[in-house]
Amino acid sequence: ECMPLVYTPTVGEACQKYSHIWSKPRGIYISIKDRGNVRKILQNWHTKDVKAIVFTDGERILGLGDLGVNGMGIPVGKLQLYSACAGIPPSQCLPVVIDNGTNTEEYLKDELYMGLKQSRVRGKEFEDLIEEFMIAATKTFGPSVLLQFEDFGNSTAFGLLEKTRKRFNTFNDDIQGTACVALGGILASLKIEGAPSKLIDHRIVFLGAGEAGIGIGELIAYAIHERDGISVSEARKNIWYLDSQGLITEARDKAEKLPHHKHRFAHDASAFKGPLSSLEDAVRQIKPTMIIGVSAQPGTFTKQVCKLMAENNKVPIIFALSNPTHKCECSAQEAYDWTKGKCVFASGSPFGTITSHGRTFEPGQGNNAYIFPGLALGVIAAEAKRIPESLFYDTAVCLAEQVTDKDYLRGSLYPKLEKIREVSLNIAVGVADSCFKLNIARVKEQPKDTRKWIQSKMTDFKY
């Protein structure tokens, strides 16, 4: 009942109105004008016992765009889920917003807007501020403090993650957390009769080639590599993307010099005949087994697209992952109706119970909350030095293994959210064990019973 209020979709509306409904300080605000003084600001926090920091620059809040410092609602909400879902003490959680301006004219003209009223600062000046912040955080709260990137823009998110991921205990939830929960659902689908039983047999088309989409594709490619022994670059050939300009292809890459994260998925499309500018074109020609929407463009999974998926597949798999609900590519009702109840559907925001073609469905929500609380608990407990890609794959496998026969019968690829504490515990145990196995744990001695050790660190909020 509370999840949609603390998290998507309600948190999106709260962020849009944040400066107008603000009532008391939450977390730390660091602006571009604070360069050179970031550590002093962090040292003002009331405790040094901080284990997890979620920080955003507010540039890409959910599917709502640049909300500037109003994006503080996201780190606040995420850390509440760290506590509720994984028992991480609230006192050990710190939300942070990095204010480097906003390009949203509405906020620049709003007299109640709490952030800097200037255009966003880009380039080296901004990157240096992020570097200073992350170094200051580790010096203030310890080298293993978890630093979660949240809702940074596409133009900065990939570069910042690549620059920092080997030096800090850090991850980007929009790139890696979303990828992990999506892969978990895909792995769970392999057990469904009529759907592909091997990951390598999937042909996947993405609508949207931003942080979430590319992150999911990269983790799928890594998973194919792990499970089927082919190279990651070869595995990427199973995955196609459409952005605002149409299908990403080799020809487009040569003509436009696509960004690096798109370049890796620019495939040879010369064998296809006819236009490839729309999703319907791509579904008709590529004949995907799965479509994944991460575009924040509502209505783009049209009736014709869904009908084509049903014609080409015994069990079409449709993931409409954009948040909040009004940004979803199609509703659960539409997906079931248009595929005559054949599809397996998952979404980023929750849908209720659906009745279609004589069946009742409770579609699963591909909610990052299945991932980041347990992942955080595991790396915090082990005092991880960094978070390698293999941990996200292992976590996705762990999530898929927790889907029960009852979940499948109700049409879901995810466990019920009521089991989130159990799911988070299982993930945390696996993550901690992997940290010791990979020799990236700062805790010197691995406990004999990892589960009991992790449980001892979880706060129970029942009263």
Explain what the structure shows.
Strand 12 and strand 13 form a beta hairpin. Helix 14 (279-286) runs parallel beside helix 15. The protein has 3 domains: 3-168, Rossmann fold (3-Layer(aba) Sandwich), CATH 3.40.50.10380; 177-366, NAD(P)-binding Rossmann-like Domain (Rossmann fold, 3-Layer(aba) Sandwich), CATH 3.40.50; 369-406 and 415-455, no CATH class. Strands 8-7-6-9-10-11-14 form a 7-stranded mixed sheet, sandwiched between helices. The protein has a 5-stranded parallel sheet with strand order 1-3-2-4-5, with helices on both faces. Strands 12-13 form a two-stranded antiparallel ribbon. The chain has helices at residues 3-6, 10-16, 18-21, 38-43, 73-86, 105-108, 123-141, 154-164, 173-189, 211-228, 232-235, 250-256, 260-263, 279-286, 303-312, 332-338, 372-382, 389-401, 405-409, 420-437, 450-455; strands spanning 28-31, 52-56, 93-99, 146-149, 170-172, 204-207, 239-243, 246-247, 290-293, 317-320, 344-347, 354-356, 359-361, 364-365. It contains 21 helices and 14 strands. It is α/β, with parallel strands linked by helices. The model has no long low-confidence stretch (mean pLDDT 95). It comes from Aplanochytrium stocchinoi. Belongs to the malic enzymes family.
